[in-house]
Design a protein that fits this description.
Elements: E1 4-7, H1 12-18, E2 22-25, E3 28-31, H2 49-66
Antiparallel strand pairs: 1-2, 2-3
Length: 88
């Protein structure tokens, strides 16, 4: 049987909505959709796509670290923007 491990960031939304920041299944780690929020769940870098991206990557890096992985282990990402013209 393949072992499944859930990783929590402690964000309030995890228990409200019912998800985990990351899930490790065997050798694979899946990270949930990540927003530009700090450890208190507060939005950061509002109106600053670069700052928001940095915060998202920091959140992802922290989740991967709890699984013993790093950003160097990432093989695929997806991004969602509400206005691509502002992301340039």
């Amino acid at each position: 049987m393949i072992e499944r491990e859930t990783i929590s960031s402690g964000a309030v939304w995890e228990s409200v909505v019912g998800y985990s920041r990351a899930v490790r299944v065997g050798p694979f780690i899946y990270v949930a959709g990540t927003t530009a929020t700090d450890e208190n769940g507060d939005a950061v870098a509002i109106g600053d796509s670069y700052g928001q991206t940095k915060q998202c990557l920091n959140n992802i890096q922290a989740a991967l670290g709890k699984c013993g992985a790093s950003l160097a282990d990432v093989v695929r990402t997806r991004i969602f923007v509400t206005d691509i013209c502002q992301a340039a």
